[in-house]
Design brief:
This protein is of the alpha+beta class. It has 4 domains: 4-165, PUA domain-like (Roll); 269-331, no CATH class; 356-543 and 603-673, Jelly Rolls; 544-596, no CATH class. The chain is built from 12 helices and 31 strands. The strands form 9 sheets. Strands 19-20-21-29-26-31-24-22-23 form a 9-stranded mixed sheet. Strands 4-3-11-10-8 form a 5-stranded antiparallel sheet, covered by helices on one side. Helix 10 packs antiparallel against helix 11 (586-596). It is flat. This is Alpha-ketoglutarate-dependent dioxygenase AlkB-like domain-containing protein. Residues 1-47 are annotated as: Disordered. Residues 1-17 have a biased composition (Basic and acidic residues). Residues 472-636 form the Alpha-ketoglutarate-dependent dioxygenase AlkB-like domain.
Length: 684
């Protein structure tokens, strides 16, 4: 990564006082979040609080000790980039036309809008030891913005930042350092010259000499207009580093007292006046600041916030010493979303409208088989996946309605109980995230046997879930899914195995489950799921390697299963028949496939289902998980997705990964679910 250093480079140590900061945009990898994606200026923390988390900004710190001139400075500059072989490689110039970040920084400069700066302790380029994972520095103002040319010839945006409140001593200052001086020379400024070619005025920034920093000018990045070679290791001019400007008019008045980085807590006393965004939208997922210990508290629990690291890790990671002792919590006093609000009340006494949609390119040539009688008051829609020589399976959709949902212990009651019962529904630390320790977007809890769901999700036995959380009616969730599994197996002549695992997922508004499959034969052949709450769209498509016939490296797949609706279906089918009849050799078979088969684009969706409140989906057949994948996209607000399956005890999914570390072996009885006679669901 490109960098510039001035004078002596200090060894890594604790961050000391810095009153001005120069920064550029660091080249970012594909797994980093965008800091800002707008033509608007970078936002200050105003009411309601909103501030920019800056992880990709590059800092130049000037250290000022007792009024002495800056001893050193450091720049880590970058621009728009892509990642290749663990190295950052420039692929384009950075300018206002192709970078919203550049436009945002420029607007912040024009409007003198303060920018909140946050530093992460994994910034390897900053030669300081930071005390916390994320360190909120202060508010800064943009004083200068220019472009610098790297040795690769590309222009990168550079920004100089100055602390807004020059009278406040920085929290990172050395203990014995003096307080900031109240006497400031705001008249001193760096030398400036006007470019003869573009007529733009620029300050003297580097000691090598004055340059024009207009990247479109013919004299851009030339010393006094000459073509003298410029090293990528430049020193800053002392006047450029040392000068200060007033923030607005009076630098003696704290200018940012009205801006608070601490977000307001929601007013639970006014639930009816709160917007959906605060109840179950994006804002409801945000963290808060503990009023007792000032620690940032992520939204982990479904019901609210708890300032307790042990609660977050559930015994898997010992809490840090500094995290112990605070038990503050802020929990919703009642359920968040009432069952069947106006958005969910479609066709009050009938079924919820159209429940399916076929796509243009599909292996299913007609709509589902609709059965209005056998499972009344449900409507049963059956989708079959055709194949010539193998059985893939079918998806059965039990479409609910008001007559079902409003019954005692029906979907309406279950939706409410899931929100108020304390059974450990929470966000977990993802084991597959590119960012270590990142929380899942959804809230989850596993019931029954442990299930390897890529998160450390400690399981609860069915007995504890049904009898110890204070809501025995929750047994109706398992009872309804078990009924659906039994009916699906009976209709298709497959073996019934009771579910011994159940996963509960809570989604806020706008959250979704991306394309995935629920196992590839190591689970039982039947999986059931129920939707409680807002409406969602469930779609199926063929897995890429079976649709295209090639793997990610463009090599023909060894198991060439040719399914109706796949790419080049007739060609692949006829060619395979020739090979099976030994009319062509294996080498000829592979050569012909390579001539035609190419991986390009994503497979099309074969059909979609609209999942309303109370609907149950059953996927029956291991071929569905092997050859197809599905996704679930939110349409309305908050919802719960509950899935039940039978785990094979010799499968990879049946592991000890999600069991309390103090438990040496898995108790098979965790997956036993015995329902009383009055708990068994009869489909009514």
């Amino acid at each position: 990564m490109d960098h510039m250093e001035i004078d002596k480079k200090p060894s890594k140590r604790k961050l000391s006082d810095a009153e001005s900061t120069t920064s550029g945009k660091r080249k970012r990898s594909s797994n980093e979040d965008d800091d800002w994606d707008s033509d608007e200026p970078l936002p200050p923390a105003v009411s309601p609080p909103s501030y920019t988390y800056i992880s990709t900004v590059v800092f130049t710190i000037n250290e000022e000790l007792a009024g002495e001139p800056p001893a050193w400075a450091q720049i880590i500059s970058a621009g728009k980039a892509r990642e290749r072989k663990d190295k950052y490689v420039m692929f384009d110039n950075q300018n206002e036309d192709n970078s919203t970040h550049i436009r945002a920084w420029k607007r912040s400069l024009q409007l003198q809008r303060p920018v909140g700066i946050v530093l992460g302790d994994r910034n390897s380029q900053l030669k300081y030891e930071l005390p916390h994972r994320y360190n909120v520095l202060d508010y800064f103002m943009v004083t200068d913005m220019w472009y610098a040319k790297g040795v690769d010839g590309y222009a990168r945006g550079q920004v100089r930042l100055q602390k807004v409140d020059l009278l406040k001593k920085s929290w990172w200052a050395e203990k014995d350092s003096p307080d900031p001086s109240r006497e400031r020379d705001f008249e001193m400024s760096p030398e400036k010259k006007t470019c003869d070619s573009c007529d733009e005025e620029w300050p003297l920034i580097y000691t090598v000499g004055w340059m024009c920093f207009n990247q479109y000018c013919q004299d851009f990045w030339k010393v006094d207009g000459s073509d003298a070679a410029i090293s990528d290791n430049l020193e800053f001019d002392d006047n450029f580093l040392s000068y200060r400007i007033k923030y607005h008019r009076n630098h003696l008045e704290p200018p940012v007292a009205k801006w608070d980085l601490v977000p307001r807590l929601p007013d639970f006393g006014n639930l009816l006046g709160m917007t959906d965004s605060y109840l179950c939208g994006e804002k409801a997922k945000r963290g808060v600041v503990c009023p007792n210990c000032n620690k940032c508290v992520p939204r982990v629990a479904f019901r609210g916030w708890k300032c307790n690291t042990q609660y977050l890790h559930e015994g898997r990671v010992e809490p840090r010493e500094s995290d112990e002792g605070c038990t503050w919590e802020y929990m919703f006093p009642a359920y968040i979303v009432k069952p069947l609000d106006e958005k969910l009340s479609r066709d009050l006494e009938d079924f919820h409208g159209a429940s399916w949609k076929l796509t243009k390119r599909r292996p299913i040539t007609a709509g589902p088989e609709q059965d209005w009688e056998s499972h009344s008051p449900y409507r049963k829609d059956t989708y079959r996946f055709p194949a010539e020589s193998i059985r893939i399976g079918e998806v059965i959709h039990f479409v609910s309605n008001q007559a079902i949902n409003k019954k005692v212990n029906g979907p309406d009651d279950l939706l409410q109980m899931l929100q108020i019962a304390d059974f450990g529904l929470r966000r977990q630390r993802s084991a597959v995230s590119k960012v270590p320790g990142q929380l899942t977007g959804s809230f989850m809890k596993n019931i029954g046997l442990p299930y390897d769901y890529n998160v450390p999700n400690i399981s609860m036995s069915f007995d504890e879930f049904h009898n110890k959380v204070g809501h025995p009616q929750l047994a109706q969730i398992y009872a309804r899914l078990d009924w659906a599994i039994r009916e699906a197996c009976k209709a298709n002549g497959t073996e019934y195995k009771p579910a011994n695992e159940m996963l509960i997922l809570g989604y806020f508004r706008g959250q979704e489950m991306i394309w995935h499959h629920d196992g590839d034969g190591r689970l039982g052949s039947t999986i059931a799921g129920m939707n409680l709450g807002a409406t969602a769209r469930m779609s199926f498509r063929m897995k890429s390697k079976y649709y295209h016939g090639v793997d990610s490296n463009q090599n023909p797949v060894l198991e060439d299963v040719i399914l109706p609706g796949c790419q080049h279906y007739e060609f692949r089918r006829d060619l395979q028949k020739k090979f099976m009849k030994r009319l062509i050799t294996r080498r000829e078979y592979s050569a012909e496939r390579r001539k035609v088969l190419r991986k390009g684009g994503v497979p099309p969706r074969v059909f979609e289902m609209i999942l309303h409140h109370g609907n149950i989906i059953v996927q029956n057949g291991t071929g569905i998980q092997k050859y197809y994948e599905h996704c679930v996209e939110a349409i309305d607000g908050m919802r719960f997705a509950v899935t039940a399956r039978h785990l094979l005890k010799n499968s990879r999914e049946f592991t000890t990964n999600n069991v309390d570390p103090s438990v040496e072996t898995i108790d098979p009885s965790m997956g036993d679910c015995e329902l009383a006679d009055d708990q068994i669901y009869d489909g009514k």
